[in-house]
Amino acid sequence: MTANGYPHLLAPLDLGFTTLKNRVLMGSMHTNLEEVPGGFEKLARFYAARARGGVGMIVTGGISPNSAGVVFHGAARMDDPAEIPHHRLVTDAVHQAGGKICMQILHAGRYAVTPEAVAPSPIRSPISPFSPHELTDAEVEQQIEDYARAAELAREAGYDGVEIMGSEGYLINQFIAPRTNQRSDRWGGSFENRIRFPLEVVSRVRQRVGSDFIIIYRLSMLDLVEGGSDWEEVVTLAKAIETVGATIINTGIGWHEARIPTIASSVPRAAFSGVTAKLRKEIRIPVIACNRINAPEIGEQIISSGQADMISMARPFLADPDFVVKSAEGRSEEINTCIGCNQGCLDHVFEGKLTTCLVNPLACREAESSVEMAKVPRRIAVVGGGPAGMMVAAVAAERGHRVTMFESRTTLGGEFELAARIPGKEEFYETLRYYESRFRKAGVEVCLGQMADREQLLKAGFDDIVVATGVRPWMPPIPGIETAQCLDYLDVLEHGKPVGQRVAIIGAGPVGFDVAEYLTESDEHVHQGKEGFMSEWGIDGSFEVRGGLIEPQPVPAVDRQVYLLEVRDIKVGADLSKTTGWIRREVLKKRNVVMLGGVTFNQVESGRILLEHRGEPQTLQVDTVIVCAGQRSRADLAEQLEGSGVRVHRVGAAREARGMDAKVAFAEAFELARNL
């Protein structure tokens, strides 16, 4: 493996008693494999694939040191030697693949969604239904002992080190911050007392594991909540953590209850590397930067400019396990980039589902989703270049089939490409770049701007025809809608038809939100970058203010009044991503978009809408009505081909529009393609 264009990122890091082969850490993320039957065998394959992909070191998902610290009932913990054989499966697999791996010790504290939750003070978290038990002095001592015991067991299980989770608002962070620590004994009150708990944990762990074992401490450098730490406290704690035995300090940004986005696609790349750079000047041990780093050039810039000694990426290794080896071999254009959507990872974790990845359905399913070369190569036509069509074409060609793709638009991506035009979703273009690279390598013939018809396809003599023609907008049966010259979302996002100053959007699902954001984003705001992002969300760019919070500044927006209207009497935006929907609602609130649920449409006319909002009649005077009320399959071609003698396959929304999104389309198309 050679450094090529990323000499700093791919340089070794000497830790004294051991050396990491490069500066890339696969950061901690829970997969929910930790709790399912046979899950550790699957975890072993999952982590080994990333080790083979060249990552310098891996940190596991959070493992609790005791039953009180689990994030949810039944979550994984390391408090008994009986757990060692399960973890040995993981460590042996990673070491055989040439990697290093650390176990993250995570005690949830008041974030534990169980009645057994404990904390420094009995203050309930806004994201948990349970009020925690206030730890007694003896119980605090027992928690420290449990951390040390977990680290000792981790060493016996073959781990190269542990990461002690001291950020994101978990138990250790709860001891540190005045927000959650209202004790008056030796564990609370003064700052010296409040940091006694993390220092005792790290010190006790170091005593138990010896000097030749990696201890990463995840330090909350920016809490992003009222009553968090100030900068002087962050630095003081970092120096003390270094003194008591930490090998590396990793960056933590934002508590889970913070109302500021930190890892969504709308967050600028490497938005928080400045806080790591500031701390690096204060301590001697290596410091790791994290959050929204998803490309090798970003990592190279961070390391080469002295902002950090390593970078941490978690979800990018869901998207592409070979991220590092592709970077090292000069194949960065072949990286399947994490787009920060959260739909297959964080959303799944919080819904109790197995983690996967929207752009990589193989993630966490390495043992179940093998792809074999086709025994008999076939000629395959793929009609439609959206997510389903792109996945089928790429996988089928890589298996040895001769694939021709037809796409009526002049660009790849279908409605996925339209989504990339929405401010904050620009990362979606990376997926299109990835597929273009994949097609070139696999030899897919791509015919853009061509509407393939039945006669053309049958005349060409294809063995299989995959219909992936996606969806078309649906016009609901509202009186007057057909004659009122309403627009649909394609008219706005694809065709650029003019939109007036007063706009009603019928339909408040994901597409309705996309259109509302698109219509209210100003050119001035688009180009504000990190500084604009921090100003909008009230983040102190100097990192001096306690908790990192300042007064948010008004967002530059276009002079347009938008109404977002939902028929169902529910919270507007209920269909959005579980972990990012709140961000999108907050953005539209800042832009004064009026969001109404429980709307009955009585009449749509040119210039106005007659409606009832929860039984109260209203008239909206509007210039433009945009319909985003749903979609229907474009299945015409598949119906025309039936009975023709050729094998026809429908995939994605061409098979079933209801419940279809890019995540489902990619996954369904992968299954079809590996069996063609």
Summary tags:
FMN, NADH:flavin_oxidoreductase, 8-stranded parallel β-barrel, Rossmann fold, TIM Barrel, globular, 5-stranded parallel sheet, iron-sulfur, 18% strand, alpha/beta, iron, 3 domains, single chain, FAD/NAD(P)-binding domain, 23 helices, 676 residues, 27 strands
Helix content: 25-40%
Characterize the overall form.
Answer: globular
**DSSP helix count?**
23
Count of distinct strands: 27
**Total tally of structural domains:** 3
Q: Which stretches are poorly predicted, pLDDT < 50 over at least 5 residues?
A: none
Query: For the terminal residues, how far apart are their CA atoms?
Result: 35 Å
Q: In the CATH hierarchy, what is the architecture of the largest domain at level 2?
A: Alpha-Beta Barrel
This entry's quaternary arrangement is single chain
| Radius of gyration, whole Å | 26 Å
Top CATH class of the largest domain: Alpha Beta
Cofactor: FMN; [4Fe-4S] cluster
Keywords: Flavoprotein, FMN, Iron, Iron-sulfur, Metal-binding, Oxidoreductase
Family: In the N-terminal section; belongs to the NADH:flavin oxidoreductase/NADH oxidase family.
Pfam family, one: Pyr_redox_2
State the gist of this model.
With 676 residues, the chain is of the alpha/beta class. Keywords: Flavoprotein, FMN, Iron, Iron-sulfur, Metal-binding, Oxidoreductase.
